[in-house]
Amino acid sequence: MALFLTQLMNGIGSGVVYASLGLAIVLIFRTTGILNFAQGEMALFATYITWELTQSPLPVWLAILISMGIAFIAGVLIERVIVRPVEKSSPLVLVIVTIGMFLAFNALAQLFFGVDAKALPRAYPDHSWIIGGVVLRSDTFVLVGVLAIECLALWLLLQRTKLGLALRAVASNPDSARLLGISAATMLMLGWGLASALGALAGALVVPTTTGLTAGSMQSVLIFSFAGVALGGFDSPLGAVVGGLIIGVAGALTQQYLPALSGIEIIVPFGLILLVLMFRPQGLFGQSKVERV
Amino acid sequence: MHFLSNRARLLGILFGLAVLGYLVLFPQQHSASEVRLWTTAIYIGIAAMGLNLLTGYNGQVSIGHGAFYGIGAYTSALLVSEHGWSYLTTIPIAAAISFIIGVAIGVPALRVKGLYLALVTLGLAVVFPDITKKFVHGVGGTNLVRVSRLDLAAPSWVPAKAAALDQWGYYLTLTIALILLLGIWLLVRGRFGRALIAVRDHEAAATTVGVNLARTKVMAFALSAAYAGIAGALSVQVTGLANAEKIGTFNLSILFLVAVVIGGTATVFGPLIGGFAVVMIQSATSDFVANPPILPSFFSGKEVLSPALFGVLLIVFMYFMPDGIMGAARRSSRRLGRTLSRAGKAA
């Protein structure tokens, strides 16, 4: 039982990370209908900036906040300069453009920051408690706490502010929103900026819990976040969180209890997605589209 | 292509023959490394042709076909190196195995649409390297399988002019590519092709006119898997090995998709041209970074700039040719036709 709970906590710890990046993915998908393959690499770049700032030396929390600010501006610029010109093209063209960004950002990160792993310090003391045989790590608590705050802030922003209403209006019907005097262009830039800042936060929190920051750091996180988002539904922030957590927990439990799958644990999350999508093609929390024939 | 007159069609055929002639003579006049590069371009084009059937004609996006390519490569490499098969006979086996696995994955994927399908197939690309690491025991216990050059050499009936290792690989790949191209051409012009397009454009409407939705979609998936498998089997002849790494398989899957879109989705020749374009652009960017014509001190030792350059070129490409090379060519030929007919009327 203690072993189970320990693995559960480990799973939640990694699931929270997938959920954070998943939120960013959902945010962009909701506002622009684009699946951003470069989300992980944008977060990677921001994390390198955080690292650079901690070398200067700034306290880690401050470094994270500054790099989130930089990531926000970068996200806005990316929308304006790179995405806007192809916004109206077919979804496939948009996929290729974000894949182009994926390749470029990854390579540029290696160019600017080198290939050797960087150690990014934690912003909080690393500690673990053993209570009744269950290992509880400070990492897990901080990550869960940050995710909870993130969700609350996003919910307040989207549901309780005028800005959030405008964002949602543009997402659901850009033309009507425009007629009501909402600048769709501004909202789209804002969506990208917010997502980019969220990614920066996710990156800065996950890297200290791993072996170090390298150009490949965010790729597996991105893949699992995608898996979580697919499980939860692309258009649902709640889905991204729940999906990410399920993927994380399933991964940890597989490692512990299904030794036959050792080395190919990754089959579990994708098997899970396939299974869920067979019964709910729009994901667990996604809205199904009614098609008029 | 209703706007093409008979004369234009004749010109097209002549142009095609000229290209074919150039392709046939190419290995006689170029170095082995260039021939290998072109062979690579052709087999990437083969995988893109198959993916185009699925993505372009049938509207199902896959970013996991690197896995089927890997299945083809492993089938071929393992049969040759461990079971002593002759290389040529492994190619149809690779195609068949990829096809069958394509059916097995296409059936559950039936319910999954659009970007969700893209992500499920992404899973395929991610899982495949792990599976090979677990079950394939190649060089030094890794998942790398090597095939000896002797086993990949040309059979005795091949004329001496085409029998060098690189030339044989090239001609074999080119021949198979042409056969598969003909296959696609016949397929999309026929009943099955119309069914593919109908399903892509409107599923409900397609079913009402009697298209079997499930069979069409699964067939498209399996055929595209088989094309990717053949490409993988052919890659063994050039590289002499089969290997699968996480990033590699993902990048390859992306490369196929990029080739389809750059060449022109839902066109017969587009993916082959796109395959050529991506392989040549990649080789050009790495050459550029290795031997920069400008600012050599800035570029020295910065090989990582090559994928950055490739990524930027992709984005720029999409700005100027969102409908791919074939789309751009079609637009400009149409414009040319209009200008010509206006000039004809004026005179």
Description:
- The complex is a heterodimer of chains A (293) and B (347).
- With 293 residues, chain A is an all-alpha fold.
- Chain A has one domain (12-217).
- Chain A contains eleven helices and two strands; from the N terminus they run H-H-H-H-E-E-H-H-H-H-H-H-H.
- Chain B has 347 residues and is mainly α.
- Chain B has a domain at 32-153 and 160-254.
- Helix content of chain B is 77%, strand content 1%.
- Chain B has helices at residues 6-29, 32-57, 65-83, 87-106, 114-135, 149-152, 165-189, 191-201, 203-208, 213-239, 246-263, 270-290, 296-299, 305-320, 324-346, and strands spanning 145-146, 241-242.
- The longest helix of chain B has 27 residues, at 213-239.
Topology summary:
The complex is a heterodimer of chains A (293) and B (347).
Chain A: H1 2-32, H2 39-54, H3 60-83, H4 91-113, E1 128-131, E2 134-137, H5 138-160, H6 162-172, H7 174-179, H8 184-206, H9 217-232, H10 237-257, H11 267-279
Antiparallel strand pairs in A: 1-2
Chain B: H1 6-29, H2 32-57, H3 65-83, H4 87-106, H5 114-135, E1 145-146, H6 149-152, H7 165-189, H8 191-201, H9 203-208, H10 213-239, E2 241-242, H11 246-263, H12 270-290, H13 296-299, H14 305-320, H15 324-346
Antiparallel strand pairs in B: 1-2
Helix pairs in contact in B: 1-7, 2-7, 2-10, 2-11, 2-12, 3-4, 3-5, 3-10, 3-11, 4-10, 5-11, 7-10, 8-10, 11-12, 11-15, 12-14
List keywords for this structure.
heterodimer; A: 293 residues; mainly alpha; two-stranded antiparallel ribbon; 2 strands; globular; B: 347 residues; 15 helices; 1% strand
**Helical content of chain A (DSSP H or I, runs of 4+):** over 70%
How would you sum up the global shape of chain B? globular
Q: Tell me about the largest β-sheet of chain A.
A: 2 strands, antiparallel
Q: What class, by secondary structure content of chain B? A: mainly alpha
What's the helix count of chain A? Answer: 11
SSE order of chain B: HHHHHEHHHHHEHHHHH
**Count of discrete alpha- or pi-helical segments spanning 4 or more residues of chain B:** 15
Low-confidence stretches of chain A: none
Rg for CA atoms of chain A: 19 Å
Adjacency order of strands in the biggest sheet of chain A: 1-2
Give the H and E element order of chain A: HHHHEEHHHHHHH
C-alpha termini separation of chain A: 53 Å
Instruction: State the total count of DSSP E strands of chain A.
Output: 2
Instruction: Report the β-strand fraction of chain B as a percent range.
Output: under 5%
- How far apart the termini of chain B lie comes to 26 Å
Shape of chain A: globular
The structure class of chain A reads mainly alpha
Mean pLDDT value of chain A = 87
